[in-house]
Amino acid sequence: MKRSTVLRGTGPEVGPALAVAASMLTDVYYMLRDGVEFRDLSDQYFAKQDKARLTTRLLQRLRDLGVEVEVKKAA
Fold it and tell me: Is 75 inside a domain boundary?
């Protein structure tokens, strides 16, 4: 992909590139407004937020695949 293609706003890569740019600008705005530094939440952020909901969702995915699973809490 040529740089000029993205700058002109044409081609299939423009949509995702603009979405990423908008997200980055939003992050920078809130960091400047609130006077805070960037803090990476990690890829496991949402998994840690609600383990019960994650467990239910993953069990449903297994059932949809035709797998029967018995679950018990780890010691």
Answer: no
Q: Per the domain annotation, does 72 fall within a domain?
A: no
**For residues 27 and 34, is the Cβ–Cβ distance under 8 A?**
no
Contact 38, 27 (CB under 8 A): yes
d(CA 45, CA 18): 25
CA angle (44, 40, 56) in 5-degree steps: 20
User: Could you tell me if residue 15 is inside a domain?
Assistant: yes
CB 5 within 8 A of CB 13: yes
Instruction: Report if pTM > 0.85.
Output: no
Residue 51 lies in a domain: yes
pLDDT, tens only, 14-30: 788 888 999 999 999 99
